[in-house]
Amino acid sequence: MKAAPRFLSAVSAAALAIAPAVGGAVAVSVLTTASAQAAVVTSISVRGNQRVSEQTIADFVGYRSGRNYSGSDINDAVRALFRSGLFANAAVVTSGSTLVVTVEEYATVNQVLFQGNRRLDDDRLRNVVELTPRSRFEQAILDADVEAIVEAYSRTGRSDVTVNASVVDLGENRVNVIFQILEGDRTKIARINFTGNNAFGDRRLQAVISTKASNPLSWLTRNDVYDDQRLAADEEALRRFYFNRGYADFRIISSSAEVDPSTGNIVINIEVDEGDRYTFGNIEIDSTVTGADTNALARTISTRSGSVYSAREVEDTLISMSERLAGAGFPFAEVTPVGNRNFDNRTIDVTYIVDQGQRAFIERIEIVGNTRTRDYVIRREFDVSEGDAFNQVLIRRAQRRLEALDFFSTVRISTRPGSSPDRVIVVVQVEDKSTGEFGAGVGYATGGENEGVNLEGSISERNFLGRGQAIRIGIGGSTSSRTYNLSFTEPYFLGYRVAATFGLYQNRNDLGDYERTSTGGTVSFGLPLTDDLTANVGYNYQRDVYSADGTDCTDLPGDPDANCGAPAFVQGRIVSGQARIKSSVIYGLVYNTIEDRNDPRDGLFMRVNQEVAGLGGDARFIRTTADASYYMTLAEDAELIGLLRGGAGNVTGLGQSVEGFDQFEMSPRRLRGFAFNGIGPRDAAGNFIGGKTYFNATAELQFPLPALPRDLGFKGAVFADAATLFGSDVAGAQNTNLEWRASAGLSVIWQSPFAPLRFDYAWPLVKEPQDDEQRFNFSVSTAF
């Protein structure tokens, strides 16, 4: 630590006390003496300098021959030397007519070396420490760097790391800094205990928080590392979980992390007080703003009498009301919810009080902490900017949007007074986190074009160059297929809140008797109409090339007995050798109220799309598809999740019959227990040719698997499927009538670190003789 200068009396002997170096390190202390009486100096003597020139030092102290130096002038000279940041110690005295300046320069760091580190490489540690080659050496900085290295290891689960720093004097005021690291063993979280929880069991609460107990897969996820900041975020997640489920009085009494002395592992204890569960009582609006339409405001209310109290619904109402008021010409109106608890019947009456708030404007928005993400990426998530009326509710909405980006580990928004009483400064504090991902997966598909062992690898970046853009490169393959794709997404196309995605792809599939290679490109635009509703429009160009897997197809049509096993319309395309072009426009709507797509529990997902082909190319059709998935929690504590899913599709030719290439296929995703294209219209040779219309429906119950830790990500399911595929414009088509098929079965679902995996075993219950069964199915899939 740099000591403050001490000024002695004029009669004291002048001296510069410099403590000896210990182990090559320079101990910093300062002792200066200033003459109390003025003296005229005609020369200057500089001592102790090695790299800084005498002239530079003379300029610092303001030396001029013939100048009259008083005690205060000498004190100012000493302060100037320290302010330069070049000297560890400095003293200025007068000796007769000579101004004597004695300095000790800071040592310069020659190299920063790390020894003993295996888990964190040198490049990562260099980003942690402040000392760098050619920087000045300070003991205080060295001590801080040691703590920074310890903290970096703690975040990887190695809290017992030991870091020793040494300084090697190389002469000429240069030093090497060496950090000797003993990494130690990885500290694991052995258990997470909850006390005081009655409404929800430990397993359910452990699913809410991001900190997990160690399990055999923790080396992949790294979520069993104790971090006090993560624990604080988990406490907030628990509060939101309870507040949104009626427990308005919920509070966390204590949370602690204790080290088990026998194992060295950490045990986390969280004590909660749930309180009573409330429902909404009377919902009212009390407005003092003249001209505000309370009937219009009432239509924005998300809270309903009799439903379970939810803080999220109250906040959604605040945002909707504030937007409605601002749009109606009341930008300074404030909406404040006032709750009145009725302890007898456990209800909360909510009154939304609308007042004309204080006129305040946003003076500026300050963004701090973003080392990678550009400022404009953060600013564009605000519906307000500098000079606009300040509205706290809209500020909270911006915070939710920033958190949803998943670019930051923390997002905090605060305010402070501006330059005048009606000015507010909004401070946005964020901490960037890693957004790049490398994915690799291995799976086995038992039906469809990708049957067999599937390998997939991808590199993606969700915040490319800190611009908020997303880029992904993926390669995959199996024994019968190869896939290549590249996509780029700009979430604010041309400065508007429109997500533009550009993609290129190629799929090569060996379909047994013939091969198909599809190469194409897409461009699509997504426009959010509300927080839950998005409109999409896009264009797709695809070029399909068919070739024979053998020689039979190439003998057609000269040999009427030849048959390569492909449908007739495919054989014709193989014989002609011509590529098939599809040029189409796709548009639709997506409605989604499900928060966690990887582990959905409640909410509705609906999608309606229409594809119109005929902008050049060979295809001429209009294809309409719709599907919906509704999740509901049937028993919160038991983690029983119900799922109802349904879908439908129809394709109709435009000025021509629908070709077999453009008809629907039937996959085990819609109907388990049957092979890929195991049901539906066929030609006279028994080849599947697709259908013009399909319907499908699913009912499913998901539940945790007993005796397995929740953190492993396994759960089971029982299901029942029903589907039909019918109608065809292909000449000679058979089995074209509407005939339902049905199945029931069991599933194991694994939210693996690589991708969601699903194992299904189904028994066909309603089937026809020509159908192809496939009872077991294993695939990589997503929720929708």
TrEMBL record:
Coiled coil: none annotated. GO terms for cellular component: cell outer membrane. It is found in: Cell outer membrane; Membrane. Residues 1-38 form the signal peptide. The keyword Signal applies. GO terms for biological process: Gram-negative-bacterium-type cell outer membrane assembly; protein insertion into membrane. Its main location: membrane. It comes from the Bacteria. Keywords: Cell outer membrane, Membrane, Repeat, Signal, Transmembrane, Transmembrane beta strand. Residues 39-106, 107-184, 187-275, 360-433 form the POTRA domain. Part of the outer membrane protein assembly complex, which is involved in assembly and insertion of beta-barrel proteins into the outer membrane. Belongs to the BamA family. Part of the Bam complex. This is Outer membrane protein assembly factor BamA. It comes from Roseitalea porphyridii. The lineage of its organism: Bacteria, Pseudomonadati, Pseudomonadota, Alphaproteobacteria, Hyphomicrobiales. The gene is bamA.
